[in-house]
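re: that complex we talked abt at group meeting.

here r the seqs, copy pasted straight from the sheet so there may be weird spacing, ignore it
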Amino acid sequence: MKRFILPLGIFVVIAVFLGLGLRHDPREVPSPLIDKAAPDFALVTLADPGKTLSRKDMLGKVWLLNVWASWCVACRQEHPILVDWASRKQVPLIGLNYKDERADGLKWLAEGGNPYDESVFDFEGRVGIDYGVYGVPETFVIDKQGVIRYKQIGPITPQALRDTIEPLIQKLNS
Amino acid sequence: MPQITMNAPSLIRRLQARALHGLAVALLACSVYGGAGLPTGLPQAQAKEAELLAANPEIEARMLAITAELRCLVCQNQTVADSHSGLAGDLRQQVRELLAKGKSDDEVRDYMTQRYGDFILYKPPVRASTWLLWFGPGILAVIGLMVLVHILRSRARMSPEAFDPDQPDDADAQDALNRR
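got the structure back, here u go
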């Protein structure tokens, strides 16, 4: 009986580690940008190619940057949640229209509703790279000093809004 | 025992089928994710890449060497050099431009880790949080050797009576012995 104890012990240790591994989502790569200054950008808006919006314009406010695209499947799931949230939100929501066609992006907003105070147009995806975007949708919470405080990878859920994003906004605004 | 030997080939076949199935799903997922960036632009993108490749062979060679050690975050088991995802194409272009501006290979790698973290490096840096990763296998090998030496030494000290005489372990060996 005694000779089984060691292999059994090793098996249990391995099983526990593998079990913990199953609970990690390898698609969620922690961003090195958390608690760092949000990268600078100055982009034309989706609605008006003559109008520019930059990170500096947002200083002094807590705001959300939501990366979206009309070709993005998971954005379709997220969009109604954002539209619903837009009616009761306390802070500006800026869209980063990522590697999209302008006409497609505008059509998307016309059809699904526009939850954004403004959407900027990142046709080449350069700002996306600066923000470490790798899977759309992604959402950044940025504080009054222009520092990234939180990054949501994948679609925003009502649960994420209620449990994480809204309390964080309240804390940053107080 | 015989039952297991009969089942082993079919088990292997089943595992192979599952592995192939997994591979197919992964490839499909990558083509969906990868194609998403440029829904209709893939052939043009490839043509553009070929053109750039011819334009400056020296920068292309350095770009390929660097991106071969960067993980594509969309298709995580591929390198940025290999992947057809839209993001990988953008990152290759970004590396080209940084190199053309005179950045060193290390500066390009720093640029990537600032944005995507160490996760993008297939060869992570040696630091406190990665010590287990780098030295764990060596430590395990040393422990294994120590256990092996301990067992061999304790067996060498045992008297010959402590061991059973060798038993043939299957019928063929038994026959061979009988024939002798």
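couple things i noticed - Chain A touches chain B at residues 26-27, 29-33, 71-73, 99, 124-126, 128-135 (CB under 8 Å). The radius of gyration of chain A is 20 Å.
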